[in-house]
Amino acid sequence: HFGARSRSEEKQPVAEPEQQPCSIESHPQVHVTGGEPHPQGHITGSELFGYVGIEAVLDQMRRKAMKTGFEFNIMVVGQSGLGKSTLVNTLFKSKVSRKSCTPNYEEKIPKTVQLQSVSHVIEEKGVKMKLTVIDTPGFGDQINNNNCWEPIVKYINEQYEKYLVEELNVSRKRRIPDTRVHCCVYFLPPTGHWLRPIDVEFMKRLGKIVSIVPVIAKADTLTMEERLEFKETIRHNLQANGIQVYPQREYDEDAEDRIRNDKIRENIPFAVVGTDKEHQVNGNKVLGRKTKWGIIEVENVAHCEFANLRDLLIRSHLQDLKDVTHDIHYETYRVRRLNEGNGGGPVNGSLEKSDGESQL
């Protein structure tokens, strides 16, 4: 296939079958030349003659997924010192950040935004996931931060282009390597005031091409009252500037999705604390930060919202993040590029050019 159908095409409402003056409830779809096809009937389990085994498809899909594994690419963006590496390590409970797995790492602020990625294969209970963490050192760290988002926009589009070129090859790979960014976690400094101009500009531009999840970094520096007020102010700022963050309301597939996602939208941005150190609390080992006032338990929702972020990114919405990337963001890019290709130049022309220019 030359590309996935968009969600708007897939989610067309299905017309209710017409009432037929007949006692048989199921109607096989028969195409008659010159006439309309009969409506499809719905046969439930109680109407089957016996066990068919359709449910076994789920086991087949599970076995196949466990064999092949899957990919997840997460980008972390924010100025230095906000705990991006620590939070990623906390999310996946392993040393997966670039800083953690680079020997003799030295913290240097680059003069320009430089995108760097590191990949790991994580296995849990027989399920393999190739995790790629893309870091953006230098973002927001300069005196003049004009257009500091441009290398990030370029990188994301380059990954879409690579996937598109593979898709359009006559002899395609059986499984196209997926380097597209599935989620961008944007770190907001815990100022307690409002979104800075750089935050507004970045999320405005990036929200159109990737799923953004904003978080308040180092939330333990704010009191509970300050945290609630800051979150409310940020939600106001996002709405006032027309910024789209994940999960978007228009992508909710049904009422159940809407109810679940509304709870998430009410809590965005998540106020998070990250750490990879364990402490004893009531005889149990917990991930936490020790202060003179006590231990801030990272996975305790009464202390911070790290657990909500983890559930969103991994336990409840990971596949949806991948689906939104493929069906919405990549599809938008694909349509635009193919339209440009129809206007004259080759579709893969810009990839060759950008590969030569960009050293991300």
Automatic annotation (TrEMBL):
Where's the Septin-type G domain? Answer: 68-340
Q: Which UniProt key words apply to this protein?
A: Cell cycle, Cell division, Cytoplasm, Cytoskeleton, GTP-binding, Nucleotide-binding
- Gene3D superfamilies found in the cross-reference section: P-loop containing nucleotide triphosphate hydrolases (3.40.50.300)
Q: Which Pfam families does the annotation name?
A: Septin
User: InterPro entries this protein is in?
Assistant: G_SEPTIN_dom (IPR030379), P-loop_NTPase (IPR027417), Septin (IPR016491), Septin3 (IPR008114), Small_GTP-bd (IPR005225)
Q: What's a single GO MF annotation on this record?
A: GTP binding
GO cellular component terms, semicolon-separated? cytoskeleton
Where in the cell does this protein reside?
Answer: Cytoplasm, Cytoskeleton
Which stretches are tagged as biased composition: Basic and acidic residues? 1-13
What are the GO BP annotations of this UniProt entry?
Answer: cell division
Region Disordered, residue ranges: 1-41, 338-360
Against PANTHER family, the record matches this protein to: SEPTIN
Q: What protein family is recorded?
A: Belongs to the TRAFAC class TrmE-Era-EngA-EngB-Septin-like GTPase superfamily. Septin GTPase family.
Name assigned to this protein: Septin
The source organism is Scleropages formosus
Its taxonomic placement starts with: Eukaryota, Metazoa, Chordata, Craniata, Vertebrata
Gene it is expressed from: SEPTIN12
